[in-house]
Amino acid sequence: MEIDSPLPLLGGLSARQFMRRHWQKKPLLVRQAVPDMVPPLARTALFDLAAREEVESRLIRHGKSGWTLKHGPFARRALPGRQQPGWTLLVQGVDLHDQAVHRLLQQFRFVPDARLDDLMISYASDTGGVGPHFDSYDVFLLQAQGRRRWSIGRQRDLGLQPDVPLKILSRFEAEQSFVLEPGDMLYLPPRYAHDGVAVGDDCMTCSIGLRSPAAAPLGADLLARIAEAHADALQDEPARAAVHYRDPTQEPLATPAAMPAALQAFAREAVQAALRDGDVIDRALGESMTEPKPTVWFEQGESPEHWHAVALDRRTRMLYDARHLYINGESFRASGRDATLMRRLADQRALGRRDLAGASDDALALMGDWCEAGWLHAE
Ligand code: SIN
Ligand code: CO
Questions:
Q1: Does residue 99 form part of some domain?
Q2: Residue ranges making up the domain that contains 96
Q3: Residues lining ligand 1, CB < 6 A?
Q4: Residue 349 lies in a domain
Q5: How many angstroms separate the Cα of 178 from the Cα of each of 141, 181, 195?
């Protein structure tokens, strides 16, 4: 991606300028971020997705009796009529199901892939919305169809209304408000209060959502992965190599149930030794960040006879670091020319004939496995 050229998507800022000035710092309103915007998905196709078991969807209504929230799947007849005001349907992870939506998400790859979460599409009838709230993550709100008024504020008071099935701010104070037309986009940093209300029927908004792991659950996930990898490695280790606790200077005890301090020190050292190698944590992180969401599944494919071009499946998550490749929750060590090739695959999400001509047998065998798993497709 060209990071120093001005982009219409960012209102004429380059990706570098946007990241310096706005990213995680302050909002940006871009008129005609996507000129001649056509919704990447028709309303009926969105409703069809909301009817599917493996797609996460929510229906939010606001009326005299307050806010209501229902979780999908929704049969078409379970959705209110389009002329009925005050409702919105939210469909999560649309990029996993639709190639045009996946392509739209690719325009945001000036942000690390590890930080991009998914593209959600909301459809709202007149006055529909999810209420004033804040999100813990950055978001790009791209108006796909119809009009929506966004009111935003920097407020510190993030107290929520009690006894409401969704997160609604108790005291929302808008500082600015804009009506977005198709193709307009609003970027908001995390925890910025906002309220988007449909102005007229058939309002469709794409939310390009980011993710940022919280330290404690990330730590717990990584420790679990490290423990599993460690246990696997031990299975291959001969018993005679094991280092046992020794206590030749242990005194006799009148209080035999007391835990020996030396045993505690031995245990602490055993745990620290398992974590000392930074590689172990890097691997666990790469596997964690590329783990497909629980609803994602891949259709099995075949390893090609001839390698002309390959492209990652739109559901595949692939990352790399200096020593490894990570793909859909697995990690591989890579170095030299193969590593260069695989990094190109991860960055471009595709390789052409010239790239493939230089691939080693090992690299082709690995890509063959990925084709069989449905993670990669030969063209
Ligand atoms: C919406 O599209 O209505 C909700 C998106 C958001 O506020 O994050
Ligand atoms: Co929001």
A1: yes
A2: 8-210
A3: 88, 122, 129-130, 135, 139, 194, 196, 205, 207
A4: no
A5: 12, 10, 11
Provide the number of structural domains found in the chain.
1
Ligand 1, atom 4: nearest CA belongs to which residue?
130
Q: Which of 205, 207, 153, 155 is nearest to 176 (CA)?
A: 153
265, part of any domain: no
- Cα of 129 from ligand 2 centre, angstroms: 10
Q: Residue 206 and residue 108: Cα distance in Å, rounded?
A: 13
Answering whether pTM is above 0.85, one says yes
Domain contains 83:
yes
Count how many Cα atoms sit within 13 Å of the Cα of residue 242 in the half-sphere of its side chain. Answer: 11
Mean pLDDT of the chain: 96
Ligand 2 centroid, distance to 291 Cα (angstroms): 24
Residues of the chain with pLDDT under 50: none
Q: Which atom of ligand 1 is nearest to the CA of 129?
A: 3
CATH number at residue 119: 2.60.120.650
